[in-house]
Amino acid sequence: MGQPRHAPEDPDWWRTAVIYQVYVRSFADGDGDGTGDLAGVRSRLPYLAGLGVDALWFSPWYPSPMKDGGYDVADYRAIDPAFGTLAEAEKLIAEARELGIRTIVDIVPNHVSDQHPWFRAARAAGPGSAERELFHFRRGRGTDGELPPNDWPSQFAGSTAPVWTRLPDGDWYLHLFTPEQPDLNWAHPAVRQEHEDVLRFWFERGVAGVRIDSAALLAKDPDLPDLATRPRPHPFVDRDELHAVYRSWRRVADEYGGVFVGEVWLPDPERFARYLRPDELHTAFNFAFLSCPWDAARLRAAIDTTLAEHAPVGAPATWVLCNHDVTRTVTRYGREDTAFDFATKAFGTPADLALGTRRARAAALLSLALPGAVYLYQGEELGLPEADVPADRVQDPMYFRSGGAAPGRDGCRIPLPWAEDMPYAGFGAHEEPWLPQPADWPSYAVDRQERDPDSMLTLYRRAIALRPMFGDGPLSWLPAPDGVLAFSRAGGALCVVNLAPTPAVLPPHSRSLLTSGPLDEAGRLPPDTAAWLRA
Ligand code: NOJ
Q: DSSP string of 301-315?
C-alpha cells in the first residue's frame, strides 16, 4: 500500500502518529511452538506497513516468568527466549524502520519480577541489608509481626488479595500487583540510575519511544501510612516526587530524540496534565476516552475535556479505544453498559456483536479524525471480539487474585487469526496456541478480510491512508442534532458520527470520502455510523 508516513527525520512524528500495540505472545508464532515471537512479528512487518501505522509499541518482551503476562520483568536488557534474542530485536527495530515504522518499548519501573537479580539478592541478604533498601521491606504489625505493615489494597481491580508478602525471615515486602512483582523503592538513587541506564540501552538500539507502565504509582510515602487514616497526599498514587523522576528521564530521551507515553490512570484532568508539561512526558494514554460509554454527549465531553487539559501544556492528545487490559471494543459497544470499568467487568455479560461492530467501525473513524495520536491494539483492526476463556486455561493473575470473581484480561489476548484455512487460523503451525482461539476465529482472519471490501481491516486501511487530510489543526464542532457529533478540522475535512436512534442528515459537503457503513436510500447517515466528508 505505502501511504506517506512521517519522514524518518520528522521530530514531531509522535504528535499525529497511529501507533499499533503488539502483544508479542499473541501476535504471530514464527517457530510454531504456540507462543508468538519476534520471528512472527518480523514476518508480518509488511502487513503492518500495509495497514499504514507509524510505530509499534511492544508490550514487555523481556525475560519474564510471565506471572503477569511479561509485566514481571527479570532482565530489562534482554529478550525472553520464548520470543527470540536481543540480536533479533535489533534486526526487527531496523527492519521496521526501513518500512518507515518506529519502535516503542515498554518499561515497567514500578516493580520487577521476583526473579530479577536485585530481588533475589535482597531475599538472600536478609533483614536490614542494603539489598533490601531497593524495595519496600518492613516488619509486620501485631505481637509477632504476623500482620501486614499496612492496609493498602491490591492494584488489580476486584482483588481482595494483600499487597504484602512475608518471607520466612519475618520481613514483609510490598507488591501493588502480584507477589511475584515486588515494588521498587524510588527514593533510592540506584533505582533511578538503573532506569536511566535502561532507557539509554534501548535508545542506543534505535527505539523511538518508551511506554511507561503504571507511571503514576512509582513514588511511595516512606511512612507507608494506612489508607484508613486518609493520608494526603495519597501515599502511592500521583505523588509530586514523580515529576522530578520524569524530568530527569526527559533529559535522557532528549539526547536521543526519544518520546514517552505514560500509563497514567488519573481521574483529575489537571493532575493528569501535569505529567505532560514540556519537560516531562510527551504523551499519556487517554483512559477517559477509552472508558467513555457510546453516548454522544459523554463522548463530546470527554473530547472537550481532553483537548482543554492538553492545551495549556502544549501536549497532543491520544485516542485509545482498547489495549491488552480492557474489554475489546466490539464487545463493549455491543453491551447494555458500553462504558469500560474494571469494577463492573463480569462473566457472562451479553453482547450484541453486530451492533458492537457497527459502533466500533464508527468509533474508529471518530478516533482517527481527532487531533493527536491514535493507539490501536492488535486485532482491533480485525474487529476481534472479547473471547471467553475456559476456567482451566485462564492465565491472567487478575482472575486468580480476585478468587475467580473477575474475568481477567485473557479474553482480549487471544492469538491473532491470520489465515482462514490454516491450523490455528494461521497463528502458528504446530502447537496449540497458549490461549485457546474461539471456534469462529477463522472468520476474522486477515486473509479473509483482505479480500472483503467491507471488512473492518479494509476500513482501517482506508481510514489510516486518508487520515492526513484532517491536517494537524484544532477541531471545530459543527451544529448537529441531538446524539450526533460533527466537527471539522483545519485540513478541510469533516467527521460526522451518528449515535442517535434515527438517521441523520449530513452537513453540507462536496464529497463523501469514507463511511463506516452504507448511507440510507435518502443519503442520510444511519444510527451508529460515521462519515468522513470533504467540506
Ligand atoms: C499495567 C499493564 O498494562 C498491566 O497489564 C499490568 O498488569 C500492570 N500495569 C502491572 O504491571
A: HHHHHHHHHHGGGTP
